[in-house]
Amino acid sequence: MSEKMTKGVQILRGDPKKAIVKLSIPMMIGMSVQTIYNLVDGIWVSGLGPNALAAVGLFFPVFMGIIALAAGLGVGASSAIARRIGARDKEGADNVAVHAIILSVILGVAIPLTMLPTIDSLFMSMGARGEAVDLAIAYARVLLIGAFVAVFSNVGNGILRGEGDANRAMLAMVLGSGLNMILDPIFIYTLGFGVVGAAYATLLSMMVTALFIAYWLFVKRDTYVDITLRDFSPSRKILRDILRVGLPASLSQLSMSIAMFFLNRVAIMAGGENGVAVFTSAWRVTMLGIVPILGMATATTAVTGAAYGERNIEKLETAYLYAIKLAFMIELGVIAFIMVFAPQVAYLFTYSEAAQVIKPELISALRTLPIFLVLTPFGMMTSAMFQGIGEGEKSLVLTIFRTLIMQVGFAYLFVHYTSFGLRGVWIGIVMGNMVAALTGFTWGRLKVKALKRVFHGSA
């Protein structure tokens, strides 16, 4: 059987530096549009009043959990496919893709079956009552019924990334997020559906994205992988291969959400409700700076995965270090921008008279917290490299160490054992992240050296 040589596969097997750039840029664009959509979605819903905002807020952690599971499965598929492309195992890559699609169907059906009967009691257990709960239940039901669409879209996107097709992966993300921004005001206000309209807009946008991905994979069939049940060969090894990266990737995302919960608690200890208002505003701005790193991390997983499958550890090392260098340079620019324009950025969150009280603290936070981004590429690219070589559990350990142990731990220590007050939260997060990033990078370098010994010894 002759092997299809798509442009994406040629990129993956070619110059690792060019591959990192060509695969990173589309993912950065796609993730940036998604980030903008999240902000715009909040703005449209906020026009309905506090109960509507509370309703979306109640379902948000549940929805993030669903997306974390789906995105993790996508990362697992991406890594497993990239490694088989590097090893020139076309049949194996096809089989991984079929396994991933079947897993997405199982997960997509299991989520509504298990969650729909219990969602109302879940909201009540959070302590919410009255209209906010009724709105949250109506909002949640729409998105839970459509959970399969969200799971399939994330897994399909992972398959495309795994074979180096970052342009179509980006197009799917931009289509969904862009359409959602257009549909939100129509469903919420023009059609008068209110907060449930936001759920309909999200579901319809996800369906359009899923249809495009399904068309590319099953109808047009010009992708590297061929997905047909006829060629499906059940394999525990492939299942383990996908889940060994996919489950830790899902848990990594969940651990970041748990870390945010504890950091909010520390911010409240240090500065009360105003403290958490300052923290969430400054963190939201800082997280915009994470988008380029996330885009580069998806490329790093695919490129290092292909190099590992090819047993070319020099190429893997080049891709890994080049991704760190590029992301580091981008982040220096991001940090400089936020620091210089801190007063102007702070104004976006403090334009109302009532919010003026937090402005000085917010400017201070915006001039400290973004330093967090300086060494973040060293830790995150190491996590992405571990995912690429199929050792997802190491990536999870790094993420938990960085977020739950070092960031939360250092923030708590600086608040309790220094006189910095709220500023201690920012300093603690920055210091904890730097220690974690350097520890992770050291582990990554040692792993690459070990791989060189293994592969050169067996050559």
UniProtKB/TrEMBL annotation:
Subcellular location: Cell membrane
Membrane topology value: Multi-pass membrane protein
UniProt xrefs under InterPro entries: MATE_fam, MdtK-like, Membrane_Transporter-Flippase
One GO CC term on file: plasma membrane
Membrane-spanning segments: 20-40, 52-75, 96-116, 136-157, 169-191, 197-218, 283-308, 320-342, 362-384, 396-418, 424-443
Molecular functions (GO terms): antiporter activity; xenobiotic transmembrane transporter activity
Keywords: Cell membrane, Membrane, Transmembrane, Transmembrane helix, Transport
Principal location: membrane
Annotated protein name in UniProt: MatE family member protein
